[in-house]
Amino acid sequence: MSLLTSIKFNEAGLVPAIAQDAETGRVLMMAWMNEEAVRQTVKTGFAHYYSRSRKKQWKKGESSGHVQGIEEMFLDCDGDTILLIVNQTGPACHTRRESCFYRQRQDDRWITFDEPQE
Amino acid sequence: MSLLTSIKFNEAGLVPAIAQDAETGRVLMMAWMNEEAVRQTVKTGFAHYYSRSRKKQWKKGESSGHVQGIEEMFLDCDGDTILLIVNQTGPACHTRRESCFYRQRQDDRWITFDEPQE
Question: How many cross-chain Cβ pairs, A to B, lie less than 8 Å apart?
């Protein structure tokens, strides 16, 4: 797949991927992809990532059902970061919040401003 | 600064930071911060990053003038990614494009869809 040759995977064979909500524009999460995750994402139309802790590739939402349908996919100037525009089913965060970025800086602290969904 | 203790810097002492345009919602770039870059960003109100190639911390726009004023700053659930909501002066990308994510996937290729600004 010639798509892959433009991507600069790091020394661990991974590339960071940012997921942004197609509807709200909110940045939902950042995770890592290996080559196989990119292939599966393109092939299936659903976001796949690589878990560094579990050392395996996974489909986002495979257990929770909170999948990410791919609307658009971008590569940055250096070829070392991917941006996914997604249709998010349910909350993106494993804490059941809409986005993983739910802690906001206030002075020298992080304040949680978002509540988990039902 | 207690803000720093919640951030999980990687083995190289870095954390990825995503910059999103406060006005348009467009994701502009992803870069890395070390502890000093986080401190300087908070202290000055302008985005500072760490260049892995030049091995030094730098103020975004210090030579181009294309600075990023910090509107809001978020930390994700794992504490290992930062999201900056910024007021971007000029193009964010060193190619003089509005965003670094100017290559869009079409089938198995990346198509450049954005033109450099004057």
Answer: 97
Task: Indicate whether this model's pTM tops 0.95.
Answer: yes
By the 10 Å C-beta count (0-12 exposed, 13-18 middle, 19+ buried), B53 is classed as exposed
Q: Phi, psi at residue A48, to the nearest 5°?
A: -120, 140
Q: Which of B1, B108, B109 shows the shortest C-beta gap to A108?
A: B1
Average pLDDT over residues B4-14: 96
Question: How much of chain A exceeds pLDDT 70, in percent?
Answer: 99
Contact B76 A103 (CB under 8 A): yes
Sequence-distant (≥ 6) Cβ neighbours of residue A19 within 8 angstroms: A27, A28, A29, A30, A31, A47, A68, A84, A86, A88, A92
Structure tokens at B108: 């198995």
Contact A83 B101 (CB under 8 A): yes
Give me the percent of chain B exceeding a pLDDT of 70.
99
Residues of A in contact with B20 (CB under 8 A): 27
Note the ipTM here. Answer: 0.96
Tell whether the model's pLDDT for residue B91 goes beyond 80. yes
Residue written as token pair 């910024």: B86
